[in-house]
Amino acid sequence: MNGVNKVAFHLAKNQHEMGYDVSVWGISNSLEHNYPARSFKTRLFRQRFNKLMLDDDLRQSIAWLPKDTVVHMHGAFITEFYLISRLLRSRFIPYIYTPHGSLTAAALEQSKYRKKIYFKFFEQELIRHAAAVQLLGEQEYAHLDQLIQNVPKLLIPNGMDLSEIPSIPEKPPESVPVFGFCGRLDAYHKGLDLLLQGFQLFLRRGNKGRLELIGDGPDRAKLERQAASLGIAEHVTFRGALYGAEKYRAMAAADLFLHPSRMEGFPMAVLEAAALNLPCLVSEPTSMCNYIKKFDAGIPLPSLQPLIISSALEYAAQLHQNKMLKPMGERAGMMVKETFNWKNVSAQLIHHYNTVQENN
Length: 360
What we know:
By secondary structure, this protein is an alpha/beta fold. The protein contains 15 helices and twelve strands. It folds into two domains: 3-159 and 341-359, Rossmann fold (3-Layer(aba) Sandwich), CATH 3.40.50.2000; 162-339, 3-Layer(aba) Sandwich (Rossmann fold), CATH 3.40.50.2000. The protein has helices spanning 3-17, 56-63, 79-90, 105-109, 112-128, 138-147, 187-190, 192-204, 220-229, 244-252, 268-275, 289-295, 306-321, 325-339, 342-359; strands at 23-28, 41-46, 71-74, 95-98, 132-135, 153-155, 178-182, 210-214, 236-240, 256-259, 280-282, 298-300. The radius of gyration is 21 Å and the shape is globular. The two termini are 33 Å apart. The mean pLDDT is 93.
């Protein structure tokens, strides 16, 4: 599952365990149920080639929804959601909308003019009629007011299921720090081009360390070429896509987890790393900086520049040498347990669902 699918899964699982009638609906190219059994209902609807048309089964299913239903839509710039919102309004069924970081200033810079036109004719209407908009991070929460005003907003982050984390033996200490990343290899989105430049400056200053990138994506070959052109290829390992326990074991082999994204909703990879007791180096767009500062659970980047990243890595190397990264990682684990509990997140949303239904 990708990040958004994971969020929908954990919300549905926890809300079902709380006794609520919940189901997950997905629009997909395939109707194959290629996932394990779930405690809640999952329904798949076929995506039409013409995105301005909805599958007949989906239209009929919306027509049969009970009047006391609240719909929660996850994702942005999805034409089908605009059409669904109109059908829901015709039946006076309220909906909550979560854009998952798509409405941050940085995210809107990608395909800027296409998004501007789409927002004006589609997304704006969807948002304006939402019973509430859930934002995961402070940047997107603040930026929404610049796009559209007088919209009910909720600031509720994602959670982390600690039962997913396998028991991993503590790794023996290494003489040089290992910096790790796990996620989609999208150079712009994840700031990986800046990370490689910052890592080069770190090494050029006489520091030692290794960089391990877990994941795959459209920019893997480009990033491998960049590492070679910077002369740091021998210090950078591209691990490829890993899953399940193998992924977590590879992540846990790092001393510091890196997530220097230019734009994000709320990165699950950071929560996973923190749950593994890894201190985290994060950028402002991850929406994690204030949490990291509060718990002293890593290194927040004041800005996204190679020199700033290099200095942060150098500071981390000093902490590693002084054996201070490990206690910092333990505080990261405590941060996840205290703040990012799916049951608490699910309960907050249930409260808002009930409020929306009462006011409808």
